[in-house]
Amino acid sequence: MKYIIKVFLFLLIFSISYSDVRGKLTGKVTDQNKNPIIGANVLLVGTNLGAATDFEGRYIILNIPPGIYDVRISSIGYKTKIVQGVKISAGQTTFLDETLEETVIELGQEIVVTAEKPIVDIRQTSSVAILDKNEISVLPVQELADIINLQTGVVDGHFRGGRLGEVQFQLDGVSINNPFTNMTNLKIDRSLIEEVQIVSGTFDAEYGQAMSGVVNVILRSGKEDKFEWNAEVYGGDYYSPDRKKYYPYIDKFNPASIQNFQLNLSGPTFIPATVFLINLRKYYNEGYLYGERRFLPTDTSNLEKKIFRPTGDGKLVPLSYTDEWSGHFKITNKSLRNIQISYQAVWDKIKGKTYNHAFRLNPEGVKTQKTTSFIHGFELTHTVNPNFFYIFNLRQNYFKYTDYVYEDVFDPRYLQAGRPVSDPNYEYGAVIQGVDLSRFLQETNSYIAKLSITDQILKNHLIKAGFEFQIAKIKFGPPGVIVESNVEGKQVLLPKIEGPEVPGVRTYHPRWLSAYIQDKVEFPWLLLRAGVRFEFFDANAKIPSDLQNPANSITGAPESKLIPTKKKIAIAPRVGVSFPIASETAVYFSYGHFYQLPALNYLFSNSDYSVLKDLQAGGISYGVMGNPDLKPEFTTQYEFGFKTQFNRNFGVDMSLYYKDIRQLLGVEFVSTYTAAEYARFTNVDFGNVAGFVIAIDYKTGAFSFSLDYTYQIAMGNSSDPRETAIRAEAGEDPRPRLIPLNWDQRHTLNTFIIFQKPNNWSLTGIIKFGSGQPYTPTIGTTFGANLETNSARKKSYVLADIRAEKNLKILGTNVNAFIRIFNLLGTRFVNGFVFTDTGSPDYSLTPAKDAATLIDPSRYYQPRRIEIGLNFNGSFLVKK
């Protein structure tokens, strides 16, 4: 503990900071003879942010919220210049060098120019994609997840070959990950986004609890001088004319199958120096997978005599729908000098179902999933002087997920319906009575505190450091179960909440502490980002002291007691360098150590070792035991790249990367004193990823073109932590080996084509190509029929999405009419299910055995989706 305190105090002395949510503007102001202008005023129009140039004509403006600004540059004896459209990004430095013309008239003369965004940012030290709200608005995307999957090196949510759950998601610089899964439950609509940064390469020391990437979303805020409103409504449907073979029931277009209603309001309030933003959204998607309500859960057929008694109404019922309400509220006050205080709340409530082909004739027996996300908190920003500011954050992240048919375990409908019942000779084994009896609840309530200071201590050194403390209450498990019990000699189903055979809902209270310090050194000939991060984690749980006697139930064996888990500490250095070798060309290199604790469900699920009291050699399996004493997983990343801008319209970015992954979550087998074995999660797996990326950008006038290609090799011991245990149970060799991971997509190509006339019309197309991911082929159905793991490849795919928009003016209101078509080509297969004996989703060598699967439409990729809508927006200035 003394060591932890020493490290913490060392970092605190330097200063304390946060994940970047503010940008920086710097540059040099000169006259027409290239001499520096001293004392020139540089001001961001519409804000109180500005600076004066020094003796070298240089200026620095910190703490700028992301956005597009007009910059006003003025000095006595020179014509004032206004540079429009200067983009400021969170955590990035924007350079703006300008020349002023001399004049004998001090007032009334202004020169207005438009800033040009460089097509390639040569000041980056790793692969970073930054998209603002204007760039997002023309893409055929709706939510954050859609934006992420378009980025270089991202394959189905896997960043550069990593497992799912290795990405840190942040909202305005604070984590929104649910530590139970290491992923986020929150869906963020594009209408809320001011800017999104997606880091798929190495990342700075300010980011933690991630091994593969970072997604930082900056939400919009209101403006003091302008009231703005925006409303959007659209409808749509999935459509495929091939009803019989692939997608039943969607050969007719129903625009009400997808519905979206959304309203944004923002602007000043009646309180001085206070602005607000409020958003409300209702979204419904019926999906494209349906069931027929032929049977009800309480039907009673006579399977012995093959007498079936359906009592349903025969209507089609959506079995993969999403029904969502979401909202966002933010209020910001600047009435105190140099102090900004804001409160923000984001919430999301989703109800839906996951398609279960077995229940296609008894849809009322399928479980319903409900997700609630509520994230809110306060932020205080104090600008002490132009070069020094601090931020204090308090945040609560609340997530709740439930998965059951009926909320109350004592609901009489459970017992009336009973277990699912099917007959293999009736509709290929479809369930014709009963309900899914499994039940699950997961609830996370986290509290996060962050304190930050950013200091431009020297002209070329921006020092950041920081710490974050988080505590969480995590609950999960079945909220009551339906068990088979013997009552008066009869086997009956009974609801139970507690008991020896009922695990129940468990509660844990883990805690985290992290800190870092980082220096950003900026010279015209060098950009250096160097830092170190400190991580501390306490599972705050207990484990057996002797794993060979896990339940302390072996007679004569050494006593095993429950002891506290060890505190976990990790220190991760990171460095990135960019060398400009010409005015618009640079080479860069980055290196770092990245630690991440496995998702807490692997630590705490099935972690009660007392269940092993009856474990005997050759006895029953208790599944893979959880391990509250897991260590953080570890990755070393390297990246080397080259960027150049050939001219104002054409640029290229190339990079090579390598990841060495250690202490990855896997399974070990522990032998007891009685020679019995049980499986347990531990840090034994490994892997490595190597790749090459080339990105080409071309922009001129109304036309923009982007192309990025990734070649990647992702190898590892296993794709899933449980894979080793599954192989052992199947009688296969469980020893470590290096094989292609399930998401090892060797070739990925993304192409963006945009035609647009601003404020008039736009047409955008996205084409994605991906080579086939691996699968394990078989040569039969008997033991040993599986060939080498992941030794075959699925077929490649091409996906195309388009968006067309036309701007109109109706009764003084701006109206944008748009149409979006996803999967324009009607691609049916995108690295999904295949029959292992053919490598195809369409046919099997044993059609009789696979008859039910051959009529399951969920094995195909989602069909063509068409959405048509209107966006209304307007604004008016407010007099102060």
Automatic annotation (TrEMBL):
Topology versus the membrane: Multi-pass membrane protein
Nucleus keyword on record: no
Q: Where are the transmembrane segments?
A: none
Taxonomically, the superkingdom here is: Bacteria
Q: Which residues form the TonB-dependent receptor-like beta-barrel domain?
A: 361-824
Q: Please tell me whether the keyword Nucleotide-binding is annotated for this protein.
A: no
Question: Which GO BP terms apply?
Answer: siderophore transmembrane transport
Q: Spell out the GO cellular component terms annotated for this protein, sorted alphabetically and separated by semicolons.
A: cell outer membrane
What name has this protein been given in UniProt? Outer membrane receptor proteins, mostly Fe transport
The scientific name of the source species is Kryptobacter tengchongensis
